[in-house]
Amino acid sequence: MTKHRCGWCVGDALYEAYHDQEWGKPVYDDDTIFEFLILETFQAGLSWITVLRKRENFKVALDAFDYKKIASYDDKKLEELMQNEGIIRNKLKIKATVTNAQAFMKVQEEFGTFSKYIWAFVDGKPIKNKVKNYKEAPANTPISDALSKDLKKRGFKFVGSTVIYAHMQATGMVNDHEVDCFRYNEV
């Protein structure tokens, strides 16, 4: 018997594996939260599968998403990234990665962990929605609006409400698995 999955991932092995193992699973460690935040910012205006297919390339190019290293990237490193055909070569997004790493560490200094800061927007526990069809899931919510606004105030770039809502979905801050998806009650 086949498992029922959310409709957005069906038919692509990489998408299905990501859906089955990661998407919507609550993430509380700063390293993984940062990785998803960076991937989501590169996704802005593109499809998630585009980013997912380049994820390993990003991991290599961005020092395994080590925000401490990324925060100190110089112009030479930024130019090297612009020449890397394995990643999304958008100059503004590449620069934003450095800016966001720096802002990420400032949030850590203020709150102890970035996780503590971001999860406070949902009172520390996932919001469990009742999505029947993935096309019904919102693109943004008042919470993602507030989080986006606060991140921008703290100097983050490419963190519009839609990007942030996708980040919330990916890191399990909201459970938008379809109610009949096998993952709905697992995450």
Could you describe the 3D structure shown?
- This protein has 187 residues and is mainly alpha-helical.
- It is 52% helix and 2% strand.
- It has helices at residues 13-21, 30-43, 48-61, 67-70, 75-82, 91-111, 114-119, 142-153, 161-170, and strands at residues 127-128, 174-175.
- Strands 1-2 form a two-stranded parallel sheet.
- It is globular and about 50 Å long.
- It starts with 12 loop residues before the first helix and ends in a 12-residue tail after the last strand.
Instruction: Give me the secondary-structure category.
Output: mainly alpha
Q: What's the helical proportion of residues?
A: 40-55%
What is the alpha-carbon Rg in Å? 16 Å
The quaternary organization reads as single chain
Largest sheet, in brief, is:
2 strands, parallel
Q: Say how many strands there are.
A: 2
- In round numbers, the mean pLDDT is 96
Shape: globular
Give me a quick take on this structure:
By secondary structure, the protein is mostly helical. The chain contains 9 helices and 2 strands, in the order H-H-H-H-H-H-H-E-H-H-E. It has a two-stranded parallel ribbon with strand order 1-2.
Helix/strand layout:
Blueprint: H1 13-21, H2 30-43, H3 48-61, H4 67-70, H5 75-82, H6 91-111, H7 114-119, E1 127-128, H8 142-153, H9 161-170, E2 174-175
Parallel strand pairs: 1-2
